[in-house]
Write a structure and sequence with these properties.
Layout: E1 2-7, H1 12-26, E2 30-37, H2 48-64, E3 69-75, H3 84-97, E4 101-105, H4 112-124, E5 145-149, E6 161-164, H5 169-176, H6 180-189, H7 191-194, H8 201-214, E7 219-224
Helix pairs in contact: 1-5
């Protein structure tokens, strides 16, 4: 299968589903990672152009841990809005990857870029096979299955699916730690809660918590988009 993980920002994918993507890759599936934005506000000291270049390179290095291809749609961080061009960009991305499965943000999350990314993915999934919608990459005869990973800190999220990532937790954390610029940004921007703290440690804790829920050491939680044409009588997640 072709697996596409779409996040709003560099580091969203690794923190939310890095262990699952590593399992897909180990199983021989083709994995793509993509972000809607380039993370260009993620620095207190660098210009938007400088930090965007750094964050995209960090995302490429993270993807390389599992042999994945990284793609950035290059929208501005926190100034990402939906229009026809955005829909077409997402359709073209999915078609380029010929995605069988898409992992993306939960429809409800704390950040508008997260929620809009989820909305557009859900909206355009049924458009993928329609040849009259023209994009650079050709249409293919499939509506991708969508799985939502949990929102930041898991607030209000009750998984319906779990993936045991005990054997890939170290890969997940190595992918997360490629995003060195994000650690500095979180410490600078959220001084009350993140001062002198590596916030990626929280994601290991969340994986341990989800593991406790399903009886393994570490896990990632998901909810499937159980809409028409996206439900199948078999397990899709690894």
């Amino acid at each position: 299968m072709n697996i596409l993980a779409i996040g709003a920002h560099p580091d969203d994918i690794e923190t939310s589903c890095g262990g699952t993507l590593a399992k897909y890759a180990k199983m021989g599936h083709k994995v793509f990672t993509a972000t809607a934005t380039n993370g260009n506000i993620g620095s207190s000291t660098l210009s938007m152009e400088e930090i965007a270049a750094i964050r995209k390179e960090e995302a490429r290095r993270a993807a390389a841990h599992i042999g994945a291809e990284y793609i950035c749609l290059d929208y501005d961080d926190e100034m990402f809005f939906e229009d026809k061009a955005a829909r077409l960009a997402f359709i073209d991305l999915v078609r380029y990857c010929k995605a069988d499965v898409i992992l993306t943000h939960n429809p409800e999350d704390y950040n508008p870029d997260h929620e809009l990314t989820s909305k557009i993915v859900n909206d355009i999934a049924v458009m993928i096979p329609i040849e009259k919608i023209h994009t650079k990459s050709p249409a293919y005869d499939k509506i991708p299955i969508i799985a939502y990973f949990e929102p930041v800190n898991g607030l209000g999220f009750v998984p319906t699916e779990y993936v045991d990532i005990t054997d890939t937790i170290d890969i997940k954390m190595a992918m997360c730690r490629e995003h060195k610029s994000q650690v500095s940004w979180m410490q600078d921007n959220y001084k009350d809660t993140m001062a002198d703290k590596d916030f990626f440690d929280d994601y290991r804790t969340i994986a341990r918590y989800r593991g406790i829920q399903c009886g393994v050491e570490f896990a990632e939680g998901f909810r499937m988009a159980n809409d028409a044409y996206r439900v199948v009588p078999r397990r899709i997640l690894p």
